[in-house]
Amino acid sequence: MAISRREFLKTGTVAAAGLAAAPEMVFGKAKKTAKKVAPSDKLNIIGVGIGGRGASDLKNLESQNIIGLADIDFKYAQHVFDRYPDAKRYNDYRKLYDDMLKDADAVMVATADHTHALIAAEAITAGKHVYCEKPLTHTVYESRLLTKLAAKYKVATQMGNQGASGKGTAIVKEWIQNGEIGEVTKVESYTNRPIWPQGLCTPTEVHEIPATLNWDSFIGPAKMRPYNSIYHPWNFRGWWDFGTGALGDMACHILHAPFTALNLGYPIKVQGSSTALLNDCAPNAQIVKMVFPARENLPKVAMPEVEVWWYDGGLMPPRPEGMPEGKDLMQSGGGTIFHGTKDTLICGCYGVGPYLLSGREPAHPIADAQTIDRGDHQMDWVRACKEDPAVRVPSKSDFSVAGPLNEMVVMGVLAVRLQALNRELLWDGENMRFTNIGPDETIKIMTEDGFSVTDGHPTFNKKYTEPMNAQAFAAELIKHTYRDGYVLPDMPE
Ligand SMILES: NC(=O)c1ccc[n+]([C@@H]2O[C@H](COP(=O)([O-])OP(=O)(O)OC[C@H]3O[C@@H](n4cnc5c(N)ncnc54)[C@H](O)[C@@H]3O)[C@@H](O)[C@H]2O)c1
Fold first, then answer.
1. Domain 165-214+230-369 is in which class?
2. Which of 48, 50, 53, 218 has most ligand 1 atoms within 8 Å of CB, for mutation?
3. What angle do the packed helices 93-100 and 116-125 form, to 10 degrees?
4. Is 50 in the pocket of ligand 1 (CB under 6 A)?
5. Most exposed: 120, 202, 403, 454, by fewest CB within 10 Å?
6. For 5-162+373-398, CATH number?
7. What digits encode the pLDDT tens for the residues 196-212?
8. Structure pTM?
9. Is 53 a pocket residue for ligand 1 (Cβ < 6 Å)?
10. How far apart are CA 278 and CA 446, in angstroms?
């Protein structure tokens, strides 16, 4: 029976179907033994959102065929169109999908955060492999959906938190799961982000939409608002409708190590606080505390209940006892402190540079055996795409891991945005709902911080939303109502 190249890439070889499922191995050596297609079989890849980070992702993927590109800003994306002159260009991913999704094996998504889920979900439902930038999604519901869709359609997936493929992350996991620091009951993570403007009032000025920009498509599923150049490119991060603030920007990089090393699942309690919180724009600095219940003990270490603290905007946890004076806790813009009963482990953003505060240097043979390092994250996904689903070794940030991790990240956003409820919020992860917000409770959030000084006299003119039903507000943050024309596939059972 003849088998087309497309079917070959989608389902793996006929021979592979006869192979016994490979053991669940996650290290480089195992990957090399997994069934692969010949190197001449390249993936046909579509890129959506290509002007910024997407350009770097595509560069790492350009050994494959880049067949189609979509970007809402033809001026900003021009340098990428120039690099791939044979790829067809679109200013709306829906038109690209209508024309070309059937010809693609895989999709790379690097748009603003609020559109990741829609673009990825449609591709997965069509049986396409997906590489999606971090944060995987804008909401908890969207993360749950992508996790379940990826499992249902058996596609290869990878979130763009490249530190997940790095050696530092592997060492952290190995040391913790080997019991080198004992039981961990507290973790503190931090970043110097945001390094872009946040804490801003919504602009009132309306700018003319450049002819090269498809503003309607940028807005996508969000509520339409007038164009202002403050939102795009890059700065979408700070605007809640489009981005997820410093958490969305960095927590997928920084919390990946604790999430995987400690086998964290859904938190059970969360609380957040921040500098002045506006309803439209993320604050300048935030602190979030999440509590995770005890997990199944590992052979060499128990996994008791653990508190995970998040600090951003340059706020830092107290320096751990014994930390040498003058030593910076930040590495590569962030870091994590794991407090264990026997020792303290510290690593940087992306899991880089792990060390024990005692100065001990335990061996890490498993991490040493791992061949992947930063930069290969995208090609590791290509490797997974080409393997038969029955024997595929998942890439390091496969959505089965990235989905639940991202839920934790956007849970931080929920904790900050609901801080006016003045309580520790109790979270029912299975059912994606808070259990201690009453049906008649209301919440008000600042819409404008109009501080001014007239003749030496300050005026503190803060404006607030009308009281909103708190349960409904929380539900909308957990699962957004999309603008007409944008619909997610149903949640698989
Ligand atoms: N892994 C990393 O280290 C890393 C680094 C930077 C950014 N990112 C992530 O990449 C994503 C993009 O960030 P960025 O810094 O590149 O932003 P950016 O604004 O510089 O680039 C986003 C690109 O997507 C386009 N775009 C936006 N909405 C679109 C839509 N609906 N359809 C098609 N194109 C659209 C924009 O025009 C632009 O070209 C974010 O989710 C961000 O968190 C990851």
1. alpha beta
2. 53
3. 10
4. yes
5. 454
6. 3.40.50.720
7. 989 999 999 999 999 99
8. 0.93
9. yes
10. 5
